[in-house]
Amino acid sequence: MNEIICPNCNKAFKVDEAGFADIVKQVRDQQFKEELQNRLHLAEKEKESAVKLAEATVRNLLQDQLANKDKELAQLKAQSELALTEKLNSKETEITQLKAKFDNVEVEKKLAVSEAVQKIEKERDKLANDLKTKELEKQNLENSLKHQFSSELLSKDAIIKYKDDEIARVKDMKLKLSTKMLGETLEQHCEIEFNKLRATAFQKAYFEKDNDSKSGSKGDFIYKETDEAGNEIISIMFEMKNEGDDTATKKRNEDFLRELDKDRNEKKCEYAVLVSLLEADSEFYNTGIVDVSHKYNKMYVVRPQFFIPIITLLRNAAMNSMQYKSELALVKSQHIDITHFEEKMNKFKEGFSRNYELASRKFKDAIDGIDKTIKELEKTKLALLSSENNLRLANEKTEDLTIKKLTHNNPTMKAKFEELE
Questions:
Q1: What is the pLDDT of residues 105-136, one digit of tens each?
Q2: Rounded Cα gap, residues 303 and 274, in angstroms
Q3: DSSP of 255-295, one letter per residue?
Q4: 80: helix, coil or strand?
Q5: What is the CA radius of gyration of the chain?
């Protein structure tokens, strides 16, 4: 690339090799035009000088010849009138011839000058046509360059205006959000923005601080939402990062992505979002919502003004996939039912086998117990039979017992029975 300074506006602009060669060619054409003018002017002067020189030469020659002739005429006059007359006639003839020659020289001179002038005029006309063509090419090139530069300037001005507007917007956003925007202030800002819409757009959503630090770290906020059946629609782990302009060590957004992914996985959230004011001059992060899923699955980096839009976008996408989640949950539940049925069957088989074994042992124990009972009953039977004999003997003794026998040798009892009688 070559840099050229415009002689009118003194502004520098760059052109490629082809453009530069065209401009150099135009400059050479201008030099050629000036050289042509100089050559035409010199040729005109040379023509005038040649004409004047030829006229002076002929004039001097004629003057010399006339002087010589005058001398000869004077000599001839001195010799004789006849000879003078003859010689005068002869000289007149010579003069006539010389005049004829002079006229021929003049004609040849004029013809030569005319031919030279015609040749020069042809060259001049050709050069003029070439110059005119070059002028047209130069004009076309200038118009093309002006149009190109105008388009580039307009495009550049539009880009500059867009960048200025974007810088002003970012500065305005930063000015609005950077008031005491240190520590948890960005968190408070996002919480306020969410609570503004909680009653209308997020009635059934859970959005609270992540206070569980059992694993050694925690995010800033967790967003969750479920349907009527309790199925999770979406869950997002949020991390908010801000840094003052006077901070000695500038942090990068990438410094926090690994920890955010860890927190998301530990809290079993589907998505992770870093809401950040770091790297404020980064064109990459200032475009809006930045997908960093190529590094960490289902992770995004957004500026604070895209906090609500990222929730809405992810939530709408999740809503659209709820039908598939429901069908998947149904298939899973059917699979779980089958699994439970098999588990119950296996448990029933195990229980039945155990109960059968226990019953079998109990039955054997019962048979053994019955056998023992039979033996005991046999003993009891024998004991009862033995007691029956004793009772029979007792009965017989009772039947043999009389009052007389009872009162024998017992005057008191005898007196009582007598009173009863």
A1: 777 777 777 777 777 778 777 777 877 787 78
A2: 8
A3: GGHHHHHHHHHHTT-SEEEEEE--STT-TTGGGSEEE-TTT
A4: coil
A5: 68
